[in-house]
Fold this sequence. Notes:
Strand order of the largest sheet: 1-2-3
Distance between the termini: 61 Å
Helix content: 55-70%
Number of helices: 5
Number of strands: 3
Bound molecules: FE2/S2 (inorganic) cluster
Strand content: 15-25%
Largest sheet: 3 strands, antiparallel
Oligomer: single chain
Amino acid sequence: MALQKQYxxxxxxxxxxxxxxxxxxxxxKNPSNFGLLPNLDFASAQHNPSCGDSVMIGGKVxxxxxxxLCFQGSGCVISMAMASKLTQAAVGMSLQEIEQLDxxxxxxxxxLSLGLNRMKCGLLSIMALQSGAKxxxx
Length: 138
Ligand code: FES
């Protein structure tokens, strides 16, 4: 029984890893909120000098909360998928909540544990969003 359970867990983990990879590939190829919206309240870009990838995030704010987000950029699957998912997930957050986003949020959104180098890819769009939100607070 214990062996069957271990096998079941192994198969489930393999399947969920596969679906996560498929989901990230889909977002990278068909990103949500890609392109510029008119009348943005902020726009900010981040660049990863080690690979040349970059992400610009723009947004609108209503009553202290993000009401719309959009992005442009080019990069690896992780950076593009994260930007796409972030522009969905961060709508409705306050500027204070945006400031708190960190590595654990990247892993939560992507559904993956990332090493140091790939974490830089995941953080690129969060850093762009946070620097944009900071501009608004000044
Ligand atoms: Fe450049 Fe991922 S390899 S951000």
